[in-house]
């Protein structure tokens, strides 16, 4: 088993920032300092192997399938040249497994992957519950794991998450933006309609504090059922509170179903979504009448308004969108968290000059990276790296997400 590398004598943020000047995104786009590098190719027989457990079926498929598609595109882009690790260029091989939205299956898959000597890191799990089931395995096997799920408890407490990292935004950052938006719209009282589970728990806690700070009243907190049964009753309870607006804190597909149920129950006021609601399914025809005019707080990739267009990240994002449209026909602005997880792990390997698990972990927790969804800044005391300034406010107008701020 690889020995973890720790301590400031091994890795410093200054060293990481200096080394990061030549970003891996440029390699993925086929550019190096503005010049083509036609000589570089992956070294035969040498790989960076990443296991991925994703919800390709079951309730989490609305998010998991999107991430699998983005991951395949980004892996292919990286493999045009490979990842420079020491004096080798390693081909990235991602082994994707369908956990069927089942936490127990996700844990078994993580165990099987983690016990293999040729697997260097793990990413995936778009649901909080499946991610939580992987955490114990990652810690026990000392396997770096980058989670794509929403829920603050994924990355804390830090003492039990030494090998665990999260690329989705923190609930507190999203809640503050939502509360500021609600206040600026002149709403005085809102209901929080939150899904059952860890993600909903994070949202309820965060919205209570954020609304209090923004001096907006919380009329009621209603929890959505785990399945579709009981959705109408939860919506009726929310509408009965007589608030000006409703914050739906739920991942797709529950978010779209909740919006439909709220409109059917008579809510004609404002609707607000957290970032977990943004998926292709949310803007599908059955949901569109209910979500038209609603708001969401989401990373900057939504609606095609990515990070500065002239940046390496902006170019890589446009390449991903073009490839996605060619392969799948349409791109609806979801955040490519899986692509960023792949970028983070690949960058860690490049900076570490190694695929050793302990060294990957050390360089992950000292990494500042401009990703496709937004900016990430990880530290030894913060494993939830999405920068709050990467978040924007969006509204559904004409069946599309449009950025307001």
UniProtKB/TrEMBL annotation:
Organism: Micromonospora sediminimaris
Official protein name in the record: Branched-chain amino acid ABC transporter substrate-binding protein
Family as reported in the entry's similarity comment: Belongs to the leucine-binding protein family.
SUPFAM superfamilies listed in its UniProt record: Periplasmic binding protein-like I
Pfam families linked to this entry: Peripla_BP_6
Highest taxon of source: Bacteria
Annotated signal sequence range: none
UniProt keyword list: Signal
InterPro entries noted in UniProt: BCAA_transport, Leu-bd, Peripla_BP_I
Domain Leucine-binding protein intervals: 49-399
